[in-house]
Design brief:
Pfam families: HATPase_c_2
Shape: globular
Strand content: 25-35%
Region (Disordered): 1-24
Protein name: ATP-binding protein
Biased composition (Pro residues): 1-10
Structural class: alpha+beta
CATH topology: Heat Shock Protein 90
Keywords: ATP-binding, Kinase, Nucleotide-binding, Serine/threonine-protein kinase, Transferase
Number of strands: 5
Length: 147
């Protein structure tokens, strides 16, 4: 699995769960939402985390190159929990066009608002190239660390 830079943990208590994604089919996204809700439940800000993960995974599946062979992993979804934050991470195979950046879509456009939505609900987000992959993350402060 590629290295993904994330915000530094604020405590020693840390738990990370990962879910590989082997298909670019849209059905992967609701399955991932259910996995995150189950993994974090009950949790502070779970709706924000699920929403951001949905947007990040949708972007990854839309913009990543198609798998070369059946059974190749196309993305990896991870949720990290600490005492003061949840971090959702999505890795996807990188193409030359895979550079996450918020857009300013036309009012009637059906796409192009995902990263702006992530920025609105997360305390911080970012991305980094990672050995042929691109890693996009969003951080959500919980408890006393909320914004």
């Amino acid at each position: 699995m590629p290295y993904c830079p994330t915000p530094p943990p604020t405590t020693a208590r840390r738990r990370t769960q990962r879910r590989p994604v082997f298909s670019t089919e849209p059905a992967e996204v609701p399955a991932a939402r259910g996995w995150i809700a189950h993994t974090l439940a009950p949790a502070d800000r779970i709706d924000d985390v699920v929403l951001a993960a949905d947007e990040l995974l949708t972007n990854a599946l839309q913009h990543a190159p198609r798998p070369r062979r059946a059974g190749d992993m196309v993305a990896m979804l991870a949720v990290e929990e600490t005492a003061t934050a949840h971090v959702v991470q999505v890795w996807s195979r990188r193409s030359k066009a895979t550079v996450p950046a918020p857009r300013c879509p036309a009012l009637e456009a059906e796409h192009g608002r995902g990263l702006a939505l992530v920025a609105a609900v997360a305390d911080d987000w970012g991305w980094a190239p990672a050995d042929g992959w691109v890693a996009v993350w969003a951080r959500f402060a919980t408890g006393g660390g909320r914004r």
